[in-house]
Write a structure and sequence with these properties.
The structure holds 2 protein chains of 2 kinds. By secondary structure, chain A is mainly alpha-helical. Chain A has 18 helices and no strands. Chain A has one domain (8-360, 447-499). Chain B has 2 domains: 2-44 and 145-181, 2-Layer Sandwich (Alpha-Beta Plaits), CATH 3.30.70.120; 61-127, no CATH class. Chain B has 5 helices and 4 strands, in the order βαβαααβαβ. Classes of the chains: A mainly alpha, B alpha+beta.
C-alpha cells in the first residue's frame, strides 16, 4: 500500500498546535514566576512529558505483547504503534530537561531532592537510597534508552521485512525474540520509573497499586489515540482493509481497560481507606478536600461515561460514537495524570513558602505538613463517609474535626503509628508530636483545605494549551514517521489474517 | 421419493453436512443467491459472519443481562445498606455503619451473578431448554465436527427436491440426508 502523505495542511495544524503549546509552556514559567519555583511550568512539563512518553512506551508494550501472543488482527496498523513508540526518543530529551533542572535545583518538583529536608525527615531519609537524583538520572536515561533500543530494532526489522522478507519469516521471528525480551524488562523498569517520575512527587506517600494504575491509565489513552488516528487515516482514504471489526476490537480494549483502570483505582482507594494508615490516607484526604472536581471528575470521565457509552455493541462499531468516547477518555486520562501530579506539587509549594518565612520553623513545618493532616485523616476519612447522616456515630463535621484533631494529635499519633508500625515509625511519630507543639503559633490549619488555584485545582488555559501543544508535537512526529514507510507491512506472516479479521 | 410427501407425522427435513465452516458460509451465500429458503443452520460452534448471512436479528439477550445486572446491583447495595444501618449495625474497625467502599466489591459480585444467572435462565427459556426437554437433533455429528444446512422439504415436489440435492452437491456437501421430525 502507498505511503501516508503528510499534507502541508496537516503539518500546519499539528505544528501550529505545537507552537501554541510551547508559548503556553513558556508563559506558565513567567505566570508562576512570583512564587519563585516556577512550579506551574515544571509540573506542566513533567505532566505532559510523562503522559506522551508513557503513551509511546505502552504502544511498544502492546506491540510486543500482541506479537508475542501470535496476534494477527492488529498487523495492518502496526506501523501506527511503531510510530508511537519511536516517540520515546524525543520523550527522553524532554525528560533530560527535568533531569538538568533536578541537578541545578531549578525546580522543586521532588521534595526528596532537598537535602536539608531529607536530613530532618526520617521518612525521606529512609527512602533516600531510591529517591535520589543519581537513581532518577540513571533510571531515566538507561531504562528509557533500553526501551528505545528495543523499539528501534523492532522498527528496523519490520521495515527490512518489507523489502527482503523471505518465506521462513526470519524477520518476524527476530521481532518476536526482541518483543519477548522487551516485555519483562519493560514491566519492571516502567514500574520503577513511574514511582520516580510521578509517585515520588507525594514523597511521603506510597502505593503498591500505583504502577499498575498509572500504566492502565496510559493503556487507555494509547488505545484512544490509536482509534482516533485510525479513524482520521480512514477518512483520508488510507487503510481500506481496516473494517468495523478492527474498530470493534479496539473499542473492546478501550472499554475493558477502562474497567480495569477503575478496578485499580478502586482497589488503591479501598486498600488505603481500609488500612487507614496516616501517610497513605493523606493522599486521598487532600484530593477529597481541596480537589473534589479532580477527584470525582476523574471517575466520571474515565469510568462512568465510557462504561455507559461503550457498553453497547454498536457504539464500538460506529465511528462517531467511538471517536467521541476515545476523545473523552484520552482527555480523561490526561486529567488523571494532572490529578496525580498537581496536588502533591502544590503541597510542596506550600511547604516551600513556609520554609522561606522562617528557616527553623519551616523545617518543622515540612515534616509536619505531610504528617499533620495524616493525623486528621486517620479519623476524618471516616466522617467524610459519615456525612451521609448516620446518627449516633458522632463524628464532627470536617471543619471542627480540624480543631479537635490538633488536640488529639499526640495521642493519636501514639496509637495509630506506634502500635501499627513499631519502632520504624517512631521518627515519624516524633515529627507529629512536634507538629502538635508547633501549633501554638498558628501555622498548619490552612494546609488541610487549599483554596482554588488555576493550574492546580483545575487545568487552566495554559495547561490546556500545553496539552494541545504536546498532542500537536506528538502527532507531528507520528505522522512524519508514518509517511516515512508504507502504511501496511508487506510480508508480515499475519497480514492475511488481519485482512480477514472477524469478531 | 416417497418421503417427500406431506404427512401428518411431522416435517420432512432435507439436510446436507459440510466438513468446514468456510464451505458452509459459501453454501449459505449460494443459497441466498439462488433464493433457496433455508430452514435452519446447525454448527458445532459459533461461526463468525453467519448471522448476517442468515438475516438474523441481533440478539436481545444482553438487554436482559443489563436489566438483571441492574437488579443485582441495587439488590446487593440495598441489602447491605439495610443490614448495616437498620437491621444489625456493627462497627468494623472504627468505620461508619454505612461504609460505601466496603460494599462495592460485594455489589459488583452480585451484579455479575444476577446478570449471568439471569441471562442463562432467559437463554434457556427462549431456546426451550430444560433438563426434561426432548432433544431433537438431525444428526449426531452436528454437535461434533459437521456443519449442517437444513431445508424443510415437506411441501416440495420432486423437482424442487432435486434442485436442493443439486445445490448440495454443487456446494460441496459431504452427505445429504432426510429425516422426519415432529412439527
Amino acid at each position: 500500500m502507498e505511503n501516508f502523505v503528510f499534507s502541508s495542511r496537516a503539518k500546519t495544524i499539528t505544528g501550529g498546535a505545537a507552537l501554541i503549546g510551547l508559548v503556553c509552556l513558556i508563559a506558565s514559567y513567567f505566570v508562576d514566576g512570583g512564587e519563585g519555583h516556577h512550579m506551574r511550568f515544571w509540573t506542566n512539563l513533567l505532566h505532559n512529558t510523562v503522559f506522551f512518553l508513557g503513551i509511546a512506551f505502552i504502544a511498544a508494550f502492546a506491540y510486543s505483547a500482541f506479537t508475542t501472543a501470535y496476534a494477527g488482527w492488529f498487523v495492518q496498523f502496526k506501523r501506527v504503534w511503531e510510530s508511537f513508540s519511536l516517540f520515546l526518543l524525543p520523550g527522553l530529551f524532554l525528560m533530560g530537561v527535568i533531569i538538568v533542572g533536578l541537578w541545578l535545583h531549578s525546580h522543586h518538583l521532588y521534595h526528596w531532592n532537598d537535602e536539608a529536608a531529607v536530613m530532618d525527615d526520617p521518612i525521606l531519609t529512609h527512602k533516600s537510597s531510591f529517591l535520589n537524583k543519581y537513581w532518577y538520572t540513571f533510571g531515566t536515561i538507561v531504562f528509557v534508552g533500553v526501551w528505545y533500543f528495543f523499539v528501534s530494532r523492532m522498527r528496523q526489522l519490520s521495515l527490512a521485512e518489507d523489502t527482503d522478507g523471505d518465506s521462513s519469516y526470519s524477520h518476524h521471528k527476530k521481532i518476536k525474540v526482541y518483543a519477548a525480551i522487551f516485555l519483562p524488562i519493560a514491566g519492571f523498569t516502567s514500574a520503577a520509573m513511574i514511582w520516580q517520575w510521578i509517585m515520588s512527587i507525594d514523597s511521603h506517600w506510597y502505593s503498591t497499586m500505583f504502577a499498575w494504575y498509572a500504566s492502565a491509565s496510559l493503556f487507555v489513552a494509547m488505545t484512544a489515540l490509536t482509534i482516533m488516528i485510525l479513524i482520521y487515516l480512514k477518512s483520508r482514504g488510507y487503510y481500506k482493509g481496516i473494517t468495523a471489526e478492527h474498530f470493534h476490537d479496539l473499542g473492546k480494549y478501550l472499554f475493558a481497560i477502562s474497567i480495569f483502570w477503575t478496578y485499580l483505582w478502586f482497589s488503591q482507594y479501598m486498600l488505603i481507606w481500609y488500612g487507614n494508615v496516616g501517610e497513605e490516607t493523606i493522599y486521598f484526604r487532600q484530593r477529597l478536600d481541596s480537589y473534589p472536581v479532580l477527584f470525582w471528575g476523574n471517575l466520571l470521565l474515565n469510568f462512568v461515561l465510557p462504561f455507559f457509552i461503550l457498553m453497547r455493541n454498536d457504539t464500538k462499531r460506529k465511528f462517531g460514537t467511538l471517536f467521541f468516547a476515545s476523545a473523552l477518555v484520552f482527555f480523561g486520562h490526561w486529567f488523571d495524570y494532572f490529578q496525580m501530579i498537581k496536588p502533591g506539587a502544590r503541597l510542596t509549594l506550600v511547604e516551600m513558602e513556609a520554609h522561606h518565612g522562617d528557616d527553623h520553623h519551616g523545617e518543622e513545618e515540612h515534616s509536619m505538613t505531610l504528617d499533620a493532616p495524616a493525623e486528621h485523616s486517620t479519623m476524618s476519612m471516616t466522617p467524610q463517609q459519615g456525612d451521609h447522616g448516620e446518627e449516633g456515630h458522632g463524628e464532627e463535621a470536617h471543619g471542627e474535626e480540624m480543631h479537635a484533631g490538633e488536640a488529639h494529635a499526640d495521642d493519636h499519633a501514639d496509637k495509630a503509628h506506634h502500635d501499627d508500625h513499631g519502632t520504624e515509625m517512631t521518627g515519624h511519630m516524633e515529627a507529629a508530636v512536634e507538629h502538635g507543639e508547633g501549633h501554638g503559633d498558628g501555622h498548619g490549619d490552612d494546609h488541610s483545605a487549599l483554596g482554588f488555584k488555576s493550574g492546580y485545582t483545575l487545568p487552566g488555559l495554559l495547561e490546556i494549551g500545553t496539552f494541545l501543544g504536546f498532542l500537536g508535537g506528538f502527532l507531528f512526529f507520528v505522522f512524519s514517521r508514518l509517511s516515512a514507510a508504507p502504511l501496511e507491512p508487506k510480508k508480515d506472516p499475519y497480514m492475511e489474517e488481519s485482512l480477514h479479521h472477524h469478531t | 421419493m416417497a418421503d417427500t410427501q406431506t404427512t401428518d407425522a411431522g416435517r420432512n427435513i432435507l439436510f446436507g453436512l459440510y466438513d468446514d465452516e468456510e464451505k458452509l458460509l459459501d453454501a449459505v451465500k449460494a443459497a441466498n443467491a439462488d433464493h433457496l429458503d433455508i430452514d435452519e443452520v446447525y454448527t458445532p460452534f459459533p461461526v463468525h459472519g453467519l448471522d448476517p448471512l442468515l438475516g438474523l436479528e441481533e440478539s436481545r439477550l444482553h438487554q436482559a443481562g443489563f436489566v438483571f445486572g441492574t437488579i443485582g446491583c441495587l439488590f446487593g447495595f440495598g441489602f447491605m445498606t439495610w443490614v448495616f444501618t437498620r437491621d444489625w449495625p456493627i462497627i468494623f474497625g472504627g468505620k461508619p455503619y454505612w461504609s460505601v467502599p466496603a460494599f462495592i466489591p460485594i455489589t459488583f459480585e452480585l451484579t455479575v451473578l444476577f446478570a449471568s444467572v439471569g441471562m442463562v435462565l432467559v437463554f434457556y427459556t427462549i431456546c426451550g431448554l430444560a433438563p426434561w426437554a426432548e432433544t431433537r437433533r438431525l444428526h449426531d455429528r452436528i454437535t461434533d465436527d459437521k456443519f449442517c444446512i437444513a431445508f424443510d422439504a415437506t411441501d416440495l415436489d420432486n423437482g424442487a427436491v432435486d434442485k436442493l440435492r443439486d445445490y448440495f452437491s454443487k456446494t460441496g456437501a459431504e452427505s445429504v440426508h432426510n429425516k422426519m421430525v415432529a412439527a
